[in-house]
Amino acid sequence: MSELEKPMTQESIVLIERLLREVSTIVKRKGREILTRFPITQPQFSALIWLYEEGDLTIGELSQKMFLACSTMTDLVDRMEKNELVARVRDERDRRVVRIHMLSKGKEIIDQVLEARQAYLTKMIGSISEAEAIRITKMLTQLHEQMNKS
Hints:
The protein is mostly helical. Helix content is 68%, strand content 8%. The longest helix has 26 residues, at 10-35.
């Protein structure tokens, strides 16, 4: 049996868990540090990222994705609306439904934040080859998909 065919050892699992935890902590810390250069808070960034990736969402949908109470989400959306990052819009199919729509100012800020975060990551791992990047991406995608199943 080759090394590639052997089942993972407990030692490997322990190491992977620790490294994932530590990388996650560093990415969050650096992400918060980068965010201080922009006119949005961490919760606003999280909400805007959801809107950026998913499109318009209701307050209920957004609060579920962010694990926040609807009342907390309403306050957050109120502040973002006041800062012209988002707007409440009526759903065209069902006028009773109100969706949160990201405005161009919100999109511009998110684009700038993501660019700064990606520049940081480039600085950290820019020396790896494209083949290594593809392997890392493949493994992280498999891990992400497996975790989403459970």
